[in-house]
Design a protein that fits this description.
Blueprint: H1 7-19, H2 26-39, E1 48-51, H3 54-64, H4 74-83, H5 92-103, H6 114-119, E2 126-128, E3 133-136, E4 141-142, E5 158-159, E6 165-169, E7 172-174, H7 176-180, H8 187-192, H9 196-206, H10 208-214, E8 218-225, E9 230-237, E10 241-247, E11 253-258, H11 265-273, E12 284-287
Parallel strand pairs: 1-3
Antiparallel strand pairs: 2-3, 4-5, 5-6, 6-7, 8-9, 9-10, 10-11, 11-12
Helix pairs in contact: 1-5, 3-4
Length: 288
């Protein structure tokens, strides 16, 4: 089908829209907001605002509701308004699909999304209400990895014009401390984290070798591996099971997972080097 050949065009077009760091075009935003309301069968309000970030938008929405910042209901109201926002340019993933099947496949029902498609080109996130519309500038900075996930190991992954920052590595949302000062993390912080993905990043940045040492893991076995020319130590950690710590002559340290059944470094190496297929088999989980 000739239509298939046009997919790369839509892919590139909407990635560019989603990653654009330009300021909001306020007049265009108002124009297409009116179309969005009309296509939704609603009356567009006459009051429009422009803010710098999702947090600024949520704060303004709460203020317009008459809720004071020092009130008991403020925190709940803030997160409610934050979650009520429409993602604008960050809707690119699904808008690309519907524009393609509308314009190339002739699915005319998708024409009702035209307003959302157009407004995404001109705003970041935005919040449509019965009494007003709050627009936002797009992010001023964004960083991704090669899999198009939010990623920055040396700074914020997303920055907004008012200084609001989003911290992420490999698409996993983190705190500034984990990204910028992992050496200040504590064993208690790591063990207390319930999200396994976040905890994995915390340990990798903290250092597995340091974690094993400072978490008072139990040393089960130690040896000089003359064949591999490495020093090896097998530990039992409180939370993460058995870990084989390997130090090579180059000074690099590798930490490898091993099943609970192994009791010695030799057994761990034999298991890691075997061709046995196992769901719980783990290769290198960290290196320094």
């Amino acid at each position: 089908m000739k239509e298939i050949e046009k997919i790369p065009h839509y892919h590139e077009k909407w990635i560019k829209i989603g990653l654009d760091c330009g300021e909001c075009d306020f007049e265009k935003a108002k124009e297409f907001a009116r179309i969005v309301y009309e296509q939704a069968g609603e009356k567009c309000p006459d009051q429009f605002y422009l803010t710098d970030s999702p947090t600024a938008c949520a704060k303004l929405a709460v203020k317009l509701r008459g809720i004071e910042e020092n009130s008991e209901e403020y925190s709940s109201a803030f997160f409610t308004e934050l979650n009520n926002q429409v993602f604008g340019s960050h809707e690119s993933g699904w808008l690309a699909y519907y524009e393609f099947i509308w314009k190339e496949m002739g699915v005319v029902e998708c024409e009702k999304l035209q307003g959302l498609m157009e407004i995404a080109k001109h705003v970041g996130w935005w919040a449509p209400y019965d009494t007003c519309v709050i627009f936002q500038h797009k992010h001023s900075e964004i960083h991704l990895d090669d899999q198009m996930r939010l990623h920055n190991e040396t700074g914020p992954a997303v920055v907004y014009r008012d200084g609001t920052k989003v911290w992420a590595i490999g698409g996993i949302g983190l705190t500034e401390q984990i990204v910028m000062a992992p050496e200040t993390l504590t064993i208690e912080q790591i063990n207390r984290e319930n999200n396994n993905e976040i905890r994995s990043v915390m340990i990798n940045r903290f250092g597995w070798a340091r974690y094993v040492k400072e978490s008072n893991s139990t040393l089960l076995d130690f040896r000089q591996n003359d064949i591999e020319n490495t020093m090896e130590a097998l530990y039992a950690t409180e939370i993460f099971g058995k870990r084989l710590v390997v130090t090579c002559p180059t000074g690099r340290i590798f930490v490898l997972g091993a099943p609970d059944s192994v009791q010695t470094c030799e057994q761990a190496q034999a298991w890691l080097g075997s061709n046995e297929d196992s769901e719980d088999k783990v290769n290198v989980i960290a290196r320094t």
